[in-house]
User: What shape does this take?
Amino acid sequence: MTAVQRIVIENCSIATVDADDTEYASGHVVIAGNRIESLGAGRAPEGLQDVVRRIDATGHLVTPGLVNTHHHYYQWITRGLATDHNLFNWLVALYPTWARIDEEMVYAAAQGSLAMMARGGVTTAMDHHYVFPAGSGDLSGAIIRAARETGVRFTLARGSMDRSEKDGGLPPDFAVETLEGALAATEATVKEHHDSSFDAMTQVAVAPCSPFSVSTELLREGAELARRLGVRLHTHGSETVEEEQFCKELFGMGPTDYFESTGWLGEDVWMAHCVHMNDSDIAAFARTKTGVAHCPSSNARLAAGIARVPDMLAAGVPVGLGVDGTASNESGELHTELRNALLINRLGAHREAALNARQALRLGTYGGAQVLGRAAETGSLEAGKLADLVLWKLDTLAHASIADPVTALVFGAAAPVTASFVNGRQIVENGRLSHVDEDAVARSTREQAQRLARIAAQG
Assistant: This one.
């Protein structure tokens, strides 16, 4: 029988983000195989067998890996466009370009998106991909391949749209699928790629795009499909005032009531944005344990508003953080969202009491794992959980005079990632990806962005 190999990390500050928010000013973490074997104050126990590596993490904070709960990777190759638009106008401006993506473009865009997140501390990622032009190739397979190569734990939210311009929606007619085609392709993707095991690296969710781009039938039948297959459900919800008006005009009710009428509230559901939620909406999410992917930078970029995150948390709504698409959050990073979530929420009704540094870190770690249905496996540093963790370097000029490491991480400049582990395997070393050539990815994404722009210009 092969012995389990151990990695020992010592002399670091540790924020476990467990139920008690346990922290160690100077402690250790022992990784055995793909699990956290032990952690605590001081040096690691003497006499550990089969230690293949010891890391002196002096000057570092160790946290759970960050968990991204909402993204659109394909948008990496349309960054920097429509920079002064609200959501609906932004979508109208970009859909004609997005409708011309193909497998090669999507693969390159996924590589770029994943690389930026992974080198910034993300260990569990997701992608909500919903644009499937006819003849564009195996887009889901391309995204999953890029995630596998990067080494992150990954959820593909297989999206869909069947409401085009001719039906009163926003996407061009040639950019959507049929109801039957979308459901069949989604089911095939789940059956081919979803892994329900404890340490799964790839999972799939059912994810019709939004109330204004899908039919009621696709929402309702999508929910039934997901529950029949035993997977989670994801969509956009309550992002803008225009969406609320759209739902009231078309369905005679607001977004939350509409979602509930189609089976889209429940502990197996999470929704992106949820900016415009009244007390009744928040109570419904809390009652049903429906999760929220909070995307503060994108919400600001598109002038959508300030989500009521403090009220959601107080009510018991599961909340995680999301980058959102890189055409509405050009940095493409999640660790900057820790800071932005805290600062933007302090502009709301609760002011300085809205969020603190540790609440922001919890949103980006355990909260995200909870939203993705993986809180038993990752999102906190605890013995028996998967070895998904990050070493943040906090002893440079950028953070040198901030005594509290969690405050330094959240309030301070973006901290360098010295090392990042997923399933006990190192995916970032000295701030660079371990298994992907970042320079090659940069060249590829630039080339595919130029190629898409040429094709779109030709109409």
In short: The chain has a mean pLDDT of 96. DSSP finds 14 helices and 17 strands in the chain. The first helix runs from residue 87 to 98.
